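Entry 14. Structure prediction run on the chain below.
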Amino acid sequence: MTAIELPPIGIAGIGTYIPSTVVTGAEIAARTGLPEFVVLEKMGIREIHVAGPDDTITAMASRAAQCALDDAGLDPAELDLVVYHGSEYKDHIVWSAASKIQNLIGASNAYAFEMYALCAGAPIAYKAVRDMMRVDPRLNNVLLVSASRENDLIDFGNMRTRFMFNFGAGGGATIFRRGLERNLVLESAVRTDGSLADTVVMTPAEGDPALLPAEMGTLHGRLDVRHADYMAERLGAVSLDRFVEVITEAVQVSGRDLRDLRFLGITHMKNSFYREILGAVGLTPEQSVYLDHYGHIQSVDQVLALELGLAQGRVRDGDLIVLAGAGTGYTWSATAVRWG
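Output returned:
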């Protein structure tokens, strides 16, 4: 049997939207009662950006999408598919943000749907969409778009959720093009540890419901942690290994060696663990971007890190890069890209 040659899928454009309102690490320290040096240095939160009154999920995603369309030089009518892979805390519950985004940006010829894998969502969406495009000639231009404002769901008085005090707001977008031979989307790798499935959950809101924005529907809650001791113990035992596994596998299945890796775009996390991951895959901090002025914006982090890496000259033509993330549940994911 003759092997079928599959077409390349390249990144034609990227874009982000970050709200202008800032909450500083010092302010977070004051609100939580934590020492300022812990928030700034250990947790790595210089500042986060929070959503304004007009920054709904679909509004932020659509602004990022327009930036990506401009970067790609693409008319929205040329999009064949819109895939939303961001937060499920969106304008309304049990509702399609993808359809609203499709309408807001004028992608009149595209169909739209959603994928969800929490903070591991971007690499998983990249894998799924790339694989779809390679076998479906009708998909020539696809928009992958994400947004989050889950900082609304954090109770700064709940120390069980302190690892989520870095949550910020924003939107990110990437355009994949079939047959594009630059910025090639290569292979991906994913690991899941379902024993952690019930550790991070939404609980009913306490206190004044007016503290949560009215435009986000009528059912509200806060993020909380169950089985906190088990979660800390389990993640401490496996998380570094899982990150290294998915990054290494994504590179190797792409036909390259980990020594070829030049840049890592990874979700925001505490500073010491971020540096530990970089060292474990043979990189230095100069070969990545630490999102300490943005915090963690769910599955926006990867495209934001890539955009900043390009702007700062840390990503160059010909570089092998990896975009990686991890989400409660608990899943680790990574996608390799040959930039340029």
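The domain at 186-338 is CATH 3.40.47.10 (Peroxisomal Thiolase; Chain A, domain 1).
Filed with the rest of this week's runs.
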